[in-house]
Amino acid sequence: MASDITSLFKASVKTVRTRNKGLVGGKEAGNSSILSHARNKTEFATRARDVANNISKLKDFLLQHRKDYINAASHLISDTSGMTDAERDQIDTDAQQFMRTCSETIRMFKEEVLKQTVSAQVRSHREAVFELLQDYLKAVCKLYSEQRAVRVKRVVEKKRISRLQPNQPALANSLHPPATSTPAKPTQDPGSPDLELTNQEGEEEEFSPEEVQMFEQENKRLFNEMNCLVDEVRQIEGKVVEITKLQEIFTDKVLQQEADIDRIADTVVATTENIKEGNEDIREAIKNNAGFRVWILFFLVMCSFSLLFLDWYS
């Protein structure tokens, strides 16, 4: 049969709390916690968190202005919150500088920390933290690269549209030619009232075969130009996507080279230490060999003197 031991548990908790109060010198140890407080954060944890917070600020900034940044046609609509091209260029400059600064900060921080003498477990933990920071920075760099690729693509589309705009009035004129292009076929005297009344009423006349052929040629030319522009835009889009992929690969390779350089630097430091230890061992061996030779020489000299003494004595 189960028994209720709640009162016993509460008494045990009260005893532990009283003992903790006595251990801390009478200070308040906590109203609801019987465990000791967490240890203070180390300098490494504080600096790593600062770096992660800086990268998060860049990510939040890019996501906050993503809509205005990639909207290259914001000036064509009545949007007071639109972003100008100068502001987009400034965002590109600041973001690239900030990413380079973060990468350099992580590299210097890693070099400084790995020089410290710590246990293998702590070193493994710190290396994992650095790897997480670098992966986080890579993700933010990829986000920026994608936004920049979308912006470049829309800028290309905007330029294509701007190139087509001057041709639109010509197309309109070709579809609606002015009255002066229509040859007049007066049947009456130019000064007669009947002819003036006919001109005021805007009587429509048919186009001649030469004019129809000219309009068809103009339409074909405009159609071919538009097809050429579409092909150029598609080629540029493919190049932009390829450039974005190359930029991502370049970013990964740069970060990988930084890791390789750090590893080579550590190897060089370890090799230098090994060379120093080897030189010390060689010096010690030379000293030991010199002492051994001195003792052999001393033994031979004593043997010679002993033989001379025995010969003299006999």
From TrEMBL:
SNARE-complex protein Syntaxin-18 N-terminal domain residues: 3-91
Lineage: superkingdom: Eukaryota
Principal cellular location given in the protein's record: membrane
Coiled coil (residue ranges): 212-239
Entries under InterPro entries matching the protein: SNARE, Syntaxin-18_N
Its membrane topology: Single-pass type IV membrane protein; Single-pass membrane protein
Similarity field: Belongs to the syntaxin family.
Protein's name in the database: Syntaxin-18
Protein's organism: Acanthaster planci
